[in-house]
Write a structure and sequence with these properties.
The complex is a heterodimer.
Chain A (H helix, E strand, L loop, with lengths): L3 E6 L6 H15 L7 E5 L2 H17 L3 H6 L4 E4 H11 L1 H4 L6 E2 L2 H15 L2 H14 L11 H14 L4 H16 L10 H19 L4 H19 L4 H9 L7 H11 L6 H32 L1 E2 L1 H14 L1 H10 L2 E4 L7 H13 L2 E6 L13 H13 L9 E2 L4 H19 L3 H4 L2 E2 L11 E6 L15 H16 L4 E4 L4 E4 L5 E5 L2 H13 L4 E3 L8 H14 L4 H11 L4 H18 L10 E2 L2 E2 L1 H8 L9 H11 L2 H8 L3 H27 L6 H13 L14 E5 H4 L4 E6 L14 E5 L15 E5 L12 H8 L1 H22 L2 E10 L5 H4 L13 E2 L5 E2 L1 E6 L13 E4 L13 E2 L12 E6 L14 H16 L6 H11 L8 H19 L3 E11 L5 E12 L2 E8 L8 H6 L2 H13 L4 E8 L4 E5 L1
Parallel strand pairs in A: 1-7, 2-3, 2-6, 4-5, 6-7, 8-9, 10-21, 10-24, 13-17, 13-18, 14-17, 18-21, 26-29, 30-31
Antiparallel strand pairs in A: 11-12, 15-16, 19-20, 22-23, 27-32, 28-29, 29-30, 31-32
Chain B lengths: L10 H6 L7 E4 L9 E3 L11 E2 L1 H9 L1 H9 L15 H18 L1 H4 L7 H19 L9 H24 L2 E14 L2 E13 L4 E7 L3 H10 L3 H14 L4 E6 L4 E4 L9 E2 L9 H20 L2 E3 L45
Parallel strand pairs in B: 3-5, 6-7, 8-9
Antiparallel strand pairs in B: 2-10, 4-5, 5-6, 7-8
The chains are: A alpha/beta, B alpha/beta.
């Protein structure tokens, strides 16, 4: 390594962003890093914005204005953004278009699903399904087949690790061989026949022994079903396992013994072995082919996803020495934030960039590496940090905590020192932080236990386990009590102590479902809850908005009309239903097939929202999906209506935030259509919303500073903090990824990590769980899990769960609440090995000898829900604010309205009048013909064939009988003479084209009939074939003032001075100056 | 030079403190909370319809609010919804039913369920499948849906072969598919299509209704003897052909024939009645009583909103209760409720 890489370990709340800002700022100010020589990658867009804004602000504050302004030259952003910038610049060398269109994550997922479809034959699907049925490779709740998810995971891991497709198939062979190596050798006996025989025998014996107990009858039904499935070849391996455990009642127990013995042979069943092998091989094959199809689909559409950007950048740096040479002269500093969350591919990329940069800083916290489940590799990043340690590239870790009060810092130090020493080989100084904040003057607990119990006892003693619903209610009760007690928190913004509010509390849950349950109970108690969870489209505000949208689009949607009326809340169900029934009765008398689509629009019942939506319908012809959605929100008075629902100000805020999230979806839909080159349609948007909801991707608005209790998962809490953090689900049992997980393992376990080849020595592993819903009492599984492989998987899982716990505990600034259930095990918490961390002590004694103020709150499920009193009044805009009307994109000068301030300044008898044979209603053709003749005459004056030309023009416009040719030619001659006499033109221009945009951005284009240059500028003359009386000339000329003003602006745009503006009435022979 | 931090503006907070011009005070107008009972002035607008089917009869019994909103208030989604994809379950069910019809019109018409071989059956289904998809399941031809279509075909082939074996074991002599019956009943005219009507060697008839899934729900119906669909088809058969038939569900996903006994279908999974006597006739009689009860309360203007959000104890304004407690709506009914936004929200929704 030529470049020095410095790794800065940054524990939770240790001022990481501050330090990174300082490191960058000092180098920019000292000149060792030019703004254009800086690359800084962050994990999220939000973090990138925060970092660049902090640097910019500091530069301004320290007087480095020029540097602050040049900060835009730096590449500060997420890894994909930085890669896109590099690729755009070196697109030619990369062999790609510089116009890189990046697929959003959701769109990329949809495209991959299509790629899978293209890669699987009907036969393979059938085979996969059959295998999946027998192996139970299905979601236990939805019964959906798991293979698509597995294929997607394999494909993701392949790309994140830059594996070659050819190698992947070899990896699948190793997978099944390794898995089956733990099974005893396959038997050659006909085990199906043996089981069939024993089942039949058992059924026969039971039918003869007169055992009619329900237990035995159930057992017989099970045997019959198993027999039927065995005959059809669909008998699942979970069924074999089940038969080893199920028994009839005592009288028939003996009959079941041979069945149990025969079923226990599943371990050596050759079909189980082949099912496992075939399933693994198939999912790997499909993943490899799907990846190829996916690449083709993207190439066809000219698209790239995030991983493509990373892969292509890596390839660019690997294969183009001239590019690395260029970057080497340019790159001064590369900073990588959240290093522990980098994927293997990103790591390889960072190492390449490191070789080009003069200085490299990686910042991260191995204690917070919690994304192993989605492709990061904590083992790999650990190995890198260890290597850096050996090379002396690890700086002193940031060892101060700016986040939590001293008691909490001491508590987390005491809790995590030992476990992290064991699992991450970290020294005490690398784990412990020293507190910077002061303790509260007021004595109040820093740690609290919610000791919950069902309130019911088991027969054998001990509290009965509390169920999920009541547990959520109990936690909600604990929150209520806590907030009722005037607990003090420190307000970072006002820098003062104050009573805790809703917004200060975060409840952390292990899974999204757990979070949804807790949120539901809190909401039931009337709290406003911020939960980043799907279900946006099912919220009342979304239902109302969508109903308005659907009614705007389609008046025949009577369901939408009813939804608007019902949800608005002014009418009870009885009122609107009576109204509708009466309306339908009348409507059906007139037309038996009436759908009653004009309900709410007719005399007797005009509903303001329905009417307003009906009146807005003309916009359907021209507006885009987003515009129509906004129109529906405005015409439907949606924001005002949902604000009135309350029941509190903060809930009203949240409802409006959800509406904004919906607007965001409409915009996202349009953007997705644009990226994928698909038309955006209103129906398409509705279908897209259906899909989003079905895939649970319709996330509600959630904001960490919203005035609400925050409920979220431990994973989502990373990088955030709150004064009060309540950690739930500590009884969760850590689960290893040995089964069904697509894992990346070392190819050769004895080899260690190499900086030179970070992606070498790696392979994929996938072992499908073959026993469906059967989880316990399976000897072969117990043997594998207790063996080396199982232990290693468990160790990795425990290590990650430990880190997740660290993330959760360190989110608290002032109070950490641990939810424990009385008399129940807490496997997750037990990973800490901190037996001293238990309820019922005050103060809580920490192992180093210090203490922390602690409180234990015993809680049982509440008897009844206490509803909070709703707020009576809300503030909102009852009248929609006036909106700037949309201007047309293009202005046609002749269609411009006359100007009120215009006046006629001069009327000259000019040229010679042209007599007409008769009057016309439509003189457009005559006007065009005269325009053409005047233009020809001014372009080629005194042309020898002028009469023939003029005659031809009149004929072509069908005006040869309207006027006399001689009259016309004379009019042209006299007009020209008069011009000469009156204005003494320097130059005459005919049919002058122009095109410009006015300040509002509208395009104005056209032709000026005649421009006559005089001393002070140009006369602008427009011909008109007006047939009216002399008395009407003035009014008629003023009618063209808008058009003349356009010409004036055009002259200005062409840097030509319009001296005066004139209308020439060709037929009347009058020149009129308009001002 | 900028001195200090840029101000943070919290619009929500400013709004609450009335610091935003033109904002006005508006009163609280809460969402309508879901209630178990709606009371209209009278029930004169809920008169007898021209004809009822199983779906409408089921709504009348289990979701009277949906019956009123759908058939009397005629609240329907707009034409745009026709372009939205049909629920996958409905599509699956329809395709499988059509395959059964095609089998009935094709090889089964020529031979019989007892004669057809596995190879013949599967080949015929494979041949018909692409045509059927083009005509009635085009959404499964979309990119992204092919493996689903393939999986469905595979499931259909296997299920129909299992069905053939079931019929063979029952010694079925005659089969009819999609048989339309009409009959008068207490609620007017009843109309229905029996998926599969079979006759065994003893000339006993049985109606079979095909379901793509919902195994547990159907088991529960049989256990509590509220297999309404089978009872309705049974009644229609009795009225038209003077005999109460046997009844069974065939669940395509799990390839199971479900019946209360194995008397007719020896290979069926027997799901005996938990308590009391079973059978279609008893089920029908109870249905008639339930219909009378529902009709009587509707005639008084009472509409019951039978949803998970409005459990029976919710308010319980209506004096009295139905004749049978075991006639309860399925737990899944809230999932497929088109009128969710009309029936009121949960408190604090």
């Amino acid at each position: 390594m030529k470049t020095t890489i410095t790794f800065i370990g940054a524990g939770a709340g240790s001022g990481k962003t501050f330090r990174v800002t300082q490191e960058i700022q000092s180098r920019l100010v000292s000149g060792s890093c030019r703004p254009s020589g800086l690359i800084a990658t962050t994990f999220t867009i939000k973090a990138a914005n925060e970092l660049s804004e902090r640097i910019r602000q500091n530069l301004y504050l320290t007087g480095n204005l020029s540097l602050a302004e040049r900060l835009n030259e730096a590449s500060i952003g997420t890894v994909d953004k930085v890669c896109k910038k590099i690729l755009t610049r070196f697109a030619f060398e990369a062999g790609i278009s510089p116009q890189i269109e990046v697929l959003a994550e959701e769109d990329a997922n949809l495209l991959f699903i299509q790629a899978v479809e293209l890669s699987v034959s009907v036969k393979e699907t059938g085979a996969l399904q059959e295998l999946a049925d027998r192996l139970g490779q299905k979601d236990l709740q939805t019964r959906a087949y798991a293979w698509k998810r597995t294929v997607h995971q394999i494909a993701n891991r392949v790309r994140e690790n830059n594996f070659e497709s050819a190698d992947v198939l070899g990896m699948s062979e190793r997978c099944w061989k390794e898995m089956l190596s733990h099974f005893p050798a396959a038997s050659k006996d006909d085990l199906d026949a043996e089981l069939t025989r024993t089942i039949r025998s058992a059924l026969e014996k039971i039918s003869q022994n007169g055992d009619n107990t329900s237990g035995t009858q159930n057992y017989c039904r099970l045997l019959e079903q198993c027999l039927s499935d065995l005959n059809n070849g669909h008998f699942a391996w979970s069924g074999w396992v089940k038969l080893t455990k199920e028994k009839p009642t005592k009288k028939s127990e003996d009959c079941a013994v041979p069945v149990m013995a025969a079923a226990a042979h599943y371990e050596i069943h050759p079909r189980l072995h082949s099912d496992i092998r075939n399933y693994i091989e198939l999912v790997f094959q499909i993943a490899t082919r799907s990846l190829a199809s996916y690449q083709d689909l993207k190439a066809e559409r000219g698209l790239a996803d995030f991983t493509d950007l990373e892969q292509q950048t890596l390839a660019l740096l690997e294969n183009n020495p001239e590019i690395t040479a260029t970057l080497t002269t340019e790159l001064d500093l590369v900073v990588v934030d959240e290093f522990q969350d980098t994927s293997p591919l990103q790591l390889a990329l960072f190492l390449k960039l490191a070789r080009c940069a003069k200085e490299v800083i990686w910042v991260g916290d191995v204690k917070q590496a919690i994304y192993g489940f989605r492709g990061t590799d904590p083992e790999l990043t650990d190995a890198v940090v260890m290597e850096l340690k050996n090379l002396g590239g690890v700086a002193e870790p940031l060892n101060k905590s700016y986040r939590s009060i001293p008691s909490l810092v001491n508590l987390t130090n005491a809790i995590f020192e030992v476990p992290f020493k064991q699992s991450l080989r970290l020294t005490a100084s690398e784990v412990a932080l020293s507190p910077v904040r002061k303790s509260f003057e007021r004595v109040q607990p820093a740690v609290e236990f919610f000791e919950v119990s069902s309130g019911k006892m088991n027969k054998g003693g001990g509290a009965k386990r509390i169920e999920n619903g009541p547990l959520a209610q109990t936690v909600a009760l604990g929150v209520t009590r806590l907030l009722d007690e005037d607990y003090q928190v420190y307000d970072k913004n006002s820098r003062q102590y104050r009573a805790a509010e809703f917004r200060d509390v975060a409840v952390l849950c292990r899974t999204n479902d757990d979070a949804a349950r807790i949120a539901e109970e809190l909401m039931r108690e009337g709290y406003t809850v911020s939960l980043a969870k799907s279900g946006l489209l099912q919220t009342p505000e979304a239902l109302f908005a969508m109903a308005c949208f659907k009614r705007l689009l389609d008046p025949s949607d009577t369901l939408a009309t009813a939804e608007i009326i019902a949800l608005e809340g002014k009418m009870t169900p009885e009122e609107w239903l009576e109204n509708r029934l009466a309306y339908m009765e009348k409507a059906r008398k007139e037309n038996p097939n009436s759908r009653g689509a004009r309900w709410g629009l007719e005399e007797g019942f005009v509903h303001p929202i329905v009417m307003s939506l009906e009146q807005a319908r003309p916009a359907l012809d021209t507006a885009s999906v987003c515009e129509l959605f906004d129109l529906a929100l405005i015409a439907g008075n949606v924001f005002c209506t949902v604000t009135r629902w309350g029941p509190s100000q903060s809930r009203a805020n949240q409802r409006r935030a959800n509406l904004e999230a919906l607007r965001g979806l409409a915009a996202k839909y349009e953007e997705g259509c644009a990226t994928n080159h698909r038309p955006a349609t209103t129906t398409g948007f509705l279908i897209w919303c259906d899909d989003l909801a079905a895939q649970e991707l319709d996330e509600k608005a959630a904001d960490e500073i919203a005035d609400a209790i925050h409920v979220l998962t431990y994973h989502r809490a990373k990088g955030l903090e709150w004064p009060i953090v309540i950690c739930t689900d500590l009884d969760n049992k850590p689960k290893s990824r040995l089964w069904d997980g697509v894992n990346v393992l070392k190819d050769d376990a004895s080899k260690s990590f190499s900086f030179a080849e970070p992606l070498e020595n790696r392979r994929l592993s996938f072992w499908p769980w073959p026993f469906g819903a059967q989880e316990k009492g399976i000897p072969i599984v117990e043997k594998i899990e207790q063996g080396e492989v199982g232990k290693e998987a468990t160790r990795a899982a425990h290590a990650e769960e430990l880190r997740l716990l660290y993330v959760g505990f360190t989110r608290a600034r002032d109070l950490l609440v641990l939810v424990k259930e009385k008399d129940q095990p807490h496997p997750w918490l037990d990973l800490l090995g901190a037996n001293w961390l238990r309820p019922g002590q005050n103060p809580l004694a920490l192992p180093p000898g210090n203490t922390v103020a602690c409180r234990t709150r015993e809680l049982t499920p509440p008897e009844a829900v206490q509803n909070r009193v709703p707020d009576k009044e809300y503030l909102w805009f009852t009248q929609p604010s006036s909106r700037t009307p949309k201007l047309p994109a293009q202005i046609i000068p002749s269609a411009c309205a006359p100007m009120v301030s215009a006046k006629v300044a001069e009327i000259l008898s000019f040229g010679s009048p042209i007599q007409m044979s008769h009057k016309f209603e439509d003189d457009t053709d005559l006007g065009d013909a005269l325009h053409a003749i005047f233009a020809a005459e001014f372009t080629h004056p005194n042309h020898p064939k002028r009469a023939t030309t003029a005659e031809r023009i009149l004929k072509e416009f069908g005006c040869e009988h309207s006027v006399w040719l001689e009259d016309v030619l004379r009019a042209v001659d006299v007009f020209r003479e008069d011009l000469e006499k009156k204005f003494k033109p320097k130059q005459i221009l005919v049919e002058v084209p122009f095109s410009f945009r006015n300040p509002a951005g509208q395009l104005i284009a056209g032709f000026i009939d005649l421009l006559v240059q005089v001393t002070d500028g140009w006369l602008v003359i427009d011909y008109k074939s007006f047939q009216g009386q002399k008395a009407d000339w003035e009014a008629k000329a003023l009618g063209y003032s808008g058009q003349l003003d356009c010409y004036r602006q055009a002259m200005f745009a062409m840097n030509m001075k319009a001296e005066s503006l004139w209308i020439y009435f060709v037929l009347g022979g009058a020149l009129i100056r308009v001002e | 030079m900028i001195n200090g931090r840029l101000p943070k503006i919290d619009l929500d907070s400013d709004l609450q403190r009335n610091r935003i011009a033109n904002a006005e005070t508006i009163g609280h107008l809460p969402l309508q909370v879901a209630r178990r009972w709606w009371r209209l002035k009278d029930g004169e607008r809920f008169g007898v319809r021209q004809a009822e089917s199983f779906s409408s009869a089921e709504k009348f019994i289990y979701s009277p609010y949906a019956w009123v909103l759908d058939y009397k208030a005629v609240l329907r989604p707009g034409v745009l919804s026709q372009f939205r994809l049909r629920s996958e379950n409905v599509l699956r069910g329809n395709l499988l039913h059509r395959l059964l019809d095609l089998l009935g019109e094709g090889p089964i018409k020529k031979g019989s369920w007892t004669a057809i071989t596995e190879k013949e059956l599967k080949e015929y289904v494979e041949k018909q499948w692409p045509i059927l998809l083009e005509q009635e399941g085009a959404t499964l031809l979309l990119l992204g849906k092919q493996s689903e279509a393939a999986a469905l075909l595979d499931a259909a082939k296997q299920a129909l072969w299992v069905l053939a074996q079931q019929l063979r074991a029952a010694e079925i002599q005659k089969t009819e598919t999609s048989v339309n019956f009409r009959a008068d009943f207490i609620g007017g005219q009843l109309d229905g299509y029996v998926d599969l009507l079979v006759k065994n060697a003893k000339a006993q008839a049985s109606v079979i209704d095909l379901k793509s899934g919902r195994l547990e729900e159907k088991k529960n119906e049989l256990q509590t003897n509220v297999q309404l669909q089978l009872a309705i088809y049974g009644f229609l058969h009795r009225t038209n052909r003077a005999e109460w038939p046997f009844g069974a569900y065939f669940i395509l996903n799990s390839r199971r024939m479900l019946a209360q006994t194995k008397e007719y279908f020896p290979l069926a999974s027997a799901v005996p009645v938990k308590t009391g006597a079973g059978g279609l006739e008893i089920c029908w009689d109870e249905f008639v009583e339930m219909w009378k009860y529902r009709r009587s309360i509707l005639d008084q203007g009472w509409i019951e909103v039978t949803l998970g959000t409005t459990p029976p104890q919710n308010g319980n304004e209506f004096p009295g209760s139905g004749p049978y407690e075991h006639w309860q709506p399925s737990k899944d009914q809230d999932k497929y409720n088109d009128f969710k936004a009309l029936t009121g929200m949960e408190a604090n929704a």
